[in-house]
Amino acid sequence: MIDSLYLKAMLRLKLEMDQALGVTDAPWGSLPTTQVEASSTSASPAMARHVAAGRNPLGSRGVPTSVPAPVRGKPAADTSFIAARSAASKAGYQDAFNQEDAVPVDFMRSKLSQPMPPPPADRAAALMELAADAQKHLSAYLDEIATRTVFGEGDPNAALMFVGEGPGAEEDKQGRPFVGRSGQLLDKMIQAMGLSRQVVYIANIAKLRAADRDAETGRLKDRPPTDAEVRRGIDFLDRQIEIISPKVLVTLGATALRYMIGRAENVTSARGTWQAYRGLSLMPTYHPSFLLRAYTPENRAKVWDDLQQVMKKLNAGD
Predict the structure, then answer these.
(1) Residue 64 above 70 pLDDT?
(2) What are residue 212's phi and psi, to 5 degrees?
(3) Which of the listed CATH numbers 3.40.470.10, 1.20.1540.10, 3.60.20.40, 3.10.180.10 matches domain 61-315?
(4) How far is Cα 254 from Cα 86, in angstroms, rounded to an integer?
(5) Which entry of 17, 164, 202, 233 is 20 to 30 Å from 176 by CA?
(6) Sign of the torsion formed by the C-alpha atoms of 193, 103, 259 and 174
(7) Which residues pair with 285 in a beta bridge?
(8) CA 261 – CA 9 distance, rounded (Å)
(9) Structure pTM?
């Protein structure tokens, strides 16, 4: 039975998300800046106590850990990689990057039919070992565009995991996922849920930056990774999920959604509806970069509705 304290906490979450995402015409109104309390008080009473005690409110079984960024290795010749980039450019992938629902899908992932194995006893150690393996395997594809592997970071025992598309320029520079403008907005979204980056886990479909050089300006322009580029790193993502074994996955954008469920879906129609990844609950929502391009109250309210469903799922006993 949901008590009044929980209902009040959920209302507070709505109001704080309203402010974090700038929703000014949501049905629940707005919250003055002076009335905003610390994020630890915006969740349920039990969650607030966990946050105050410095514990993961989503049931962490260990200490929040960030996997160190791998260092740059020696590039190796890869003509298929260059050909894939050229084909992606000709196919209009750069234009698709600016359209949330325009990314096509052309293959199914075999691992989606496999059940989730039990997580290892020491998840942090398993992630560190996997990160080293990813660095070793992907070092052959490093070049002037992708200078390092961006593995992922967060609590290895997290109950909530965010999956995005791939690293951009700033992520490649720092070796960390979601640290640019999109990452700043994602941080606000997480904080409005009463959480922090330290108690969730964040990773991407692709572990290397995907970009093309503009013929006129010479500048690099990020784009969605091609199937060939995704195949290089998605097995590492699958293993990350197996190790962490989160209760809920949130996909950010069309690219992450299509690879995680193995079929093309329109994010606009799929968001807000629970999907499944190998038996885990998966909630699709818009990528923060899409919100930055289409920063309307309507879109921000939709994202907040998606995140509310996530919070309910995390707080449920099942």
Answers:
(1) no
(2) -125, 150
(3) 3.40.470.10
(4) 22
(5) 17
(6) negative
(7) 252
(8) 32
(9) 0.72
Q: Scan for tokens 């899409």, then name that residue.
A: 290
Give the type of residue at 289: S
Residue with the two structure tokens 């600016």: 98
| Token pair 């949501």 in the structure block, residue | 26
Cα pseudo-dihedral 187, 192, 194, 196, rounded to 10: 0
Q: What residue type is assigned to position 261 of the chain?
A: I
Assign 3-class secondary structure to the chain. CCCHHHHHHHHHHHHHHHHHCCCCCCCCCCCCHHHCCCHHHCCCHHHHHHHHCCCCCCCCCCCCEECCCCCCCCCCCCHHHHHHHHHHHHCCHHHHHCCCCCCCCCCCCHHHHCCCCCCCCCHHHHHHHHHHHHHHHHHHHCCCCCCCCCCCEECCCCCEEEEECCCCHHHHHHCCCCCCHHHHHHHHHHHHCCCCHHHCEEEECCCCCCEEECCCCCCEEECCCCHHHHHHHHHHHHHHHHHHCCCEEEEECHHHHHHHHCCCCCHHHHCCCCEEECCEEEEEECCHHHHHHCCCHHHHHHHHHHHHHHHHHHHCCC
CA distance 223 to 166: 9
CA distance 278 to 293: 32
CA distance 255 to 46: 35
pLDDT in tens, 212-240: 999 999 999 999 999 889 989 899 999 99
Weakest mean pLDDT among 18-22, 117-121, 224-228: 18-22
Cβ neighbour number for residue 11 with a 10 Å cutoff:
12
Q: Note the residue count of the chain.
A: 318
Q: Which amino acid is at 301?
A: A
